[in-house]
Design goal:
The chain has 355 residues and is α+β, with helices and mostly antiparallel strands. 51% of the residues lie in helices and 15% in strands. Strands 1, 2, 3, 4, 5, 6, 7 and 8 form an eight-stranded mixed sheet that branches. The radius of gyration is 22 Å and the shape is globular.
C-alpha cells in the first residue's frame, strides 16, 4: 500500500509539475491562481468520474455548467458579454488542467471557446455577439463548428435565396458537441463561380427546422463528448444569421493554417530552449530530444496538411507541397527516429520525477 501511494504521488507530481514554461518565465499571480483553481477542480470533480463518463458516453452537463460559473466556458469573451475577459495564456492554462482531469470535458470546453465563440468574436456584429455568445458563457449552452463533409472537398450547396432566407442542403461530418449543442456555425457555398471566395458562414440554432443529427459515433477516445453528422435538408436560415460578410467563410474555415502555425512555432520554441540550455552549459538531453521530435513531426504534419488544402494540385510534382512532404518524412527517421526520441524523453522524465 505504501508503495502504491508513493507511485501515485510521483505520478501526480509529474502531471502537475511538468511545466517547462514556468521554468523560463514566472506566471502572473492572477494566472497562477487560475491554474491552481482549475487544477483543484479537475482533481476534485473531473478525475474521479472521467473513466465512468468515457465508458458510458455521458455528457458532463453538471461539470460544464460549473466551469461556466468559473468563467472557463468563455475565457476570452469580454466581461460585458458575460465572459471572463482573460487572455490566451489564461485559456491555455485552464485547458491544460481541465483536460488533465477529463479529456472529454476539455474538448467540450475548447470547442465552445475556440471553434464556436472565437469566430463570432472576430467576425460577428455587436447584435450577433449578444445573441450568440452571451447565452453560451454560462455552460448551460454550448456551440459547435460544422465544416467537414463526408467524402468531398467542396462545401454544401445552397439551392436558392428564397423569401429573404438562405436554403441550405448538405451533410456535415464528425461534428464535435453536435448532440449537446444549442447552436452551430455552418459553412456553405453561396456562389460556386467564386470558388473558395464564395463560401459563407451561418449561425444556426439547434434544434432548427431542416436540421437533424446522425447517430452518435462510438469513438476510440473522448467519448463523453458527442460526435455526429449534422444533416441539412432545405434548412432555411434568415439573412441576419450570416456570420461576417458574404463570402468570408473561407477565412473563418482556415483553421488548418492555424494548426500548422502552432506546430511550427512550438517546434521552434523547443529548439530555441534546447539551444539556450546548451549555451548555458546546462543539461539539455531531454529538451534536445523534444525539439527533434516536435520539429520532425511538425514538418510531416504541415506538409501533409498543405497537400490536403491544395487537394489534387498538392499531389502533382509541379507543386512544391509533395516535395516538402517527401523531404519531411525522412526527418522522423534519421538521426534518431521519433520512437527513439520518445524513449529518451521518457527516460529523462523517469529520472527527473523519480518514477
Amino acid at each position: 500500500m505504501a508503495a502504491l501511494f508513493k507511485a501515485r504521488r510521483a505520478l501526480s507530481s509529474f502531471f502537475t509539475g511538468c511545466r517547462s514554461l514556468s521554468q523560463l518565465a514566472e506566471l502572473p499571480e492572477t494566472h497562477q491562481i487560475l491554474r491552481q483553481t482549475c487544477r483543484d477542480y479537475a482533481d476534485r470533480e473531473l478525475f474521479p468520474i472521467a473513466a465512468r463518463l468515457d465508458k458510458e458516453h455521458v455528457y458532463p452537463a453538471k461539470q460544464i455548467q460549473e466551469l461556466g460559473a468559473m468563467g472557463v466556458m468563455a475565457m476570452e469573451v469580454p466581461e460585458e458579454l458575460g465572459g471572463a475577459g482573460m487572455d490566451y495564456l489564461a485559456y491555455s492554462l485552464a485547458m491544460e488542467e481541465i483536460s488533465r482531469g477529463c479529456a472529454s470535458t476539455g474538448v467540450v470546453v475548447s470547442v465552445n471557446n475556440s471553434l464556436y465563440i472565437g469566430p463570432i468574436l472576430k467576425f460577428g456584429t455587436e447584435e450577433q455577439k449578444k445573441q450568440w455568445i452571451q447565452p453560451f458563457t454560462t455552460g448551460e449552452k454550448v456551440g459547435c463548428f460544422a465544416l467537414s463533409e463526408p467524402g468531398k472537398c467542396d462545401l454544401s450547396d445552397l439551392s436558392a435565396l428564397i423569401l429573404s432566407r438562405w436554403v441550405v442542403n448538405g451533410t456535415k461530418a464528425w461534428i464535435t458537441n453536435s448532440w449537446d449543442a444549442s447552436a452551430a456555425i455552418v459553412f456553405a457555398t453561396t456562389d460556386k463561380t467564386l470558388k473558395h471566395k464564395g463560401i459563407s458562414a451561418f449561425l444556426v440554432p439547434m434544434p432548427h427546422p431542416g436540421l437533424s443529427l446522425g447517430k452518435k459515433e462510438d469513438k476510440l477516445g473522448i467519448r463523453a463528448s458527442s460526435t455526429a453528422n449534422i444533416i441539412l435538408e432545405d434548412c432555411r436560415i434568415p439573412l441576419g444569421y450570416m456570420l461576417g460578410p458574404r463570402g468570408s467563410g473561407f477565412k473563418i474555415a482556415m483553421f488548418k493554417l492555424a494548426d500548422m502555425a502552432v506546430a511550427i512555432e512550438g517546434a521552434r520554441l523547443l529548439t530555441w530552449k534546447a539551444a539556450l540550455l546548451r549555451d548555458s552549459k546546462k543539461a539539455f538531453t531531454k529538451e534536445a530530444a523534444m525539439a527533434k521530435l516536435a520539429a520532425s513531426e511538425a514538418a510531416t504534419f504541415c506538409s501533409h496538411q498543405a497537400i490536403q488544402v491544395l487537394g489534387g494540385m498538392g499531389y502533382v510534382t509541379d507543386m512544391p507541397a509533395e516535395r516538402h512532404y517527401r523531404d519531411a518524412r525522412i526527418t522522423e527517421i534519421y538521426e534518431g527516429t521519433s520512437e527513439i526520441q520518445r524513449l529518451v524523453i521518457a527516460g529523462q522524465l523517469l529520472k527527473e520525477y523519480q518514477l
